[in-house]
Amino acid sequence: MGIASKLALCLVALTCVATLPAQAQNRPRETIQVGLIDRTFFPQPVFVAIQNGYFADEGFNANIRFIRSGEGQAAGLMKGDLNFVLSSVEGIIQNVERGGPLRMIAANSGKLSHFIITQKKFAKVEDLKGATVGILTMTEGSFFNWQEIAQKHGLKFPDDYKVLETAGAGARHRLLLDGKIDVGLQSIPWAYVAEDAGFNNLGAAADYVPDWQFTVYNVNGEWAKANATKVVGFLRAILRASRHGHVSMLFPMITNLEELHFVNKLVKEKRAKMANMTAVEDLKTYRDFTQAHLDGLKNLTSAFESLYDSMPADQKKNADQVFHNFGPSKTRKQG
């Protein structure tokens, strides 16, 4: 059995382990108010925890409320309208610096998943001089990342471009469509939606800002102290959802999209040259195909190793057993 097949079986088994319900709660469910800014890549653990019943296992009904800015989320925590919020770090830090009670309790995204999405007329970042940039707000979010990107291309705020506060990525996409902004840092999946709509993608924000704790889970510290059991239950559900997501995401990695695109490119090149290709040149194409698969396997192995290291003991044991059971067949004894 090939390595991809073994990994697929392993991940199926791990998914079964990861999604086993927690001990049933025999009490009525309590509603918790969870604030999100937009439907993007970042809140997936929250949605998975709802869909898979992880919050229910903790005795919660999670009510999602979309609050379109970190400032609005902070106000909700302060008033008690929200129990948990997922937002960028700046608003929480600013509250703490003012002596406020808001606190971060867990990290969410430690990397930027944004891309520089522009109107079609802009071919490079330098062309954006005089442009209007869509941002969340002036005090939080990707505005700080955009300034760093722009400065590396000789553009400074406010001399070289204007900004427009737009709320989240969905709102920015609509403003791009309407021509009211020229550029925005769009996160997954909105960056892909924008490409499909014909906008230009001038590169990944992470290439400019490789390390940035972008989003975190936050609470009112005073409420959290009085409701420690709820905080622990919320985090346990989010952790289960995150592990489930890591396992699920590895299924498409078995075929590795980057590898697949590269192999498709090699196939097209071979077909174009096939009529005049020598035997040696033909043989070299198989070398290139093999190397592409090896590179893909290297990426997959690295990702699986990170997942394996984060597993609890029962999941590691399950993974070990799957690989043991479907390893190379033993040679039969002669005689």
As for the CATH topology of the largest domain, it is: D-Maltodextrin-Binding Protein, domain 2
* Broad CATH class of the largest domain: Alpha Beta
Low-confidence stretches: 1-9, 12-24, 250-257, 326-335
Q: What is the rounded distance between the termini? A: 27 Å
How many discrete domains? Answer: 3
Structural class: alpha/beta
Helical residues, percent? 40-55%
The Rg value, from CA coordinates, equals: 24 Å
Strand content: 15-25%
Q: What is the mean pLDDT?
A: 81
Task: Characterize the main sheet.
Answer: 5 strands, mixed
Descriptive terms for the model:
single chain, 335 residues, alpha/beta, D-Maltodextrin-Binding Protein, domain 2, 3 domains, five-stranded mixed β-sheet, 13 helices, flat, disordered N terminus, disordered C terminus
Chart the SSEs and their pairings.
Elements: H1 3-18, E1 30-36, H2 44-51, H3 54-57, E2 60-66, H4 70-79, E3 84-88, H5 90-97, E4 102-109, E5 114-118, E6 132-135, H6 143-151, E7 162-165, H7 169-178, E8 183-187, H8 190-196, E9 200-204, E10 215-220, H9 221-226, H10 228-253, H11 257-273, H12 279-310, H13 313-325
Parallel strand pairs: 1-2, 1-3, 6-7, 6-8
Antiparallel strand pairs: 3-10, 4-10, 5-8, 5-9
Helix pairs in contact: 1-10, 1-13, 2-10, 10-12, 11-12
Characterization of this structure:
The chain has three domains: 146 residues, Periplasmic binding protein-like II (D-Maltodextrin-Binding Protein, domain 2, 3-Layer(aba) Sandwich), CATH 3.40.190; 94 residues, D-Maltodextrin-Binding Protein, domain 2 (3-Layer(aba) Sandwich); 74 residues, no CATH class. Helix 1 packs antiparallel against helix 10 and helix 1 packs antiparallel against helix 13. With 335 residues, the chain is an alpha/beta fold. It is built from 13 helices and ten strands. The N terminus and C terminus are likely disordered. The strands form two sheets. It has a five-stranded mixed sheet. Strand 6, helix 6 and strand 7 form a beta-alpha-beta unit.
